[in-house]
Amino acid sequence: MPRTATEHDIPELVRLRALLFDDLGGDFFNPANAGDDWRDALARVFERKLAEPECRILVVDGGPGLAACGIGTIEQWFPGPHSRNGRIGHVIGMVTDPSHRRRGHGRAIMLGLLGWFRERDAVRVDLTASREAEPLYRSLGFTGHPDPLLCWKP
Fold it and tell me: What is the pTM of this model?
């Protein structure tokens, strides 16, 4: 089932992330002027993140290539009454190759990431869910987010 990604997985991680943006669609995720430079930048970030202790990238092999991947990160925010230690987890980049969907890969990756978040004492884990994936996340205990979310793009 899932394993921790290595540097050898970077080309496949970039491919899967591109599939995610294709699935999400629209001008925000696929702007007409994006070009391909972002893929090289993404590969460099993956290389750095694979070595960081507050990032976990899990993959499922699909032979050839990867069937699925998911990324977990932990940020140190400021503690408060609602967040005793300020350690907030984020799940990003959950994607399964279309030819490998409906086989439990996403669930297996999420369970692995949730265990990792527990081990690292995250007080909350946030994610953005597609309509198709929302039932999976809700079945694992995710609920509506308590914070109103806004976005600013310079």
Answer: 0.89
